[in-house]
Please model this.
Amino acid sequence: MRHIFNIFGCLVDKDVFIKRYTELLARRLVNDSYANLDFETTFKSKLKEICGVVAVQPVDNILSDFNISQKESEDFRRFLFERHKREDFRVRLLSRGIWPSEEPIELELFDQLQRLHAIFTEYFQSHFRFKTFKWSHLQSRVIFTYSVDPSLKSECKYEECDLNMNGLQAALLYFIYQRRSQYSVG
Model:
C-alpha cells in the first residue's frame, strides 16, 4: 500500500483518482470481486488522511452502505431458508444515490426468478414499509447450472457446468432456450 500512496502523492488530479477508485470499488463490491474488505477500509482511511473527509465521503458512504447491505442480505437468506427451504437466492440492497446507477430496464423474468422476486418483494414490504426498491438486472448475477448431455461425455470432462451472467443475459438465454425449436444453427 505504501507504494500506491507514493505514486498517489505525485498525482496532480487526486479528485479524478478518487472518483475512478469509487466507481471501481462499487463494481468490486457489487460483483463480489474484492479481495479484502479490511484492505479497502484501510485504503479509504489513508485517502482520508491525505485528501480530507469531504473528498473521500463517497467511498465512506459506499463501504458503510455495503456493510448494512451484508446484514440485510443475511437476514433475507435466513428468512428464505426458514420459510421456503431455499439457499440458492441472494439479494443485496443498495441505497440509491450512493452507488453508481443504471437506467432501469423492464424485463420479463422467467418463472423461477418471478417466484423468487415475489418472495423477496413480500419480505421487503414486510421489513421496510416506507421504502421502495428497483431490481437492477445489469448488476444482478445469475448462475445457471446445467448437466452435460451423456452423448458428449467423451468431449467434455465435466458432468455439470455453471454459466455466470447478469440478469439481462439470463433472461435472453432463457428466452432463446424456450424458443429453441424456432431457431436453427448452420
Observations:
- The chain has two domains: 2-90, 102-186.
- Residues 53-84 form the longest helix (32 residues).
- Strands lie at 142-147, 160-165.
- The helical segments are 2-10, 14-30, 37-51, 53-84, 111-127, 167-178.
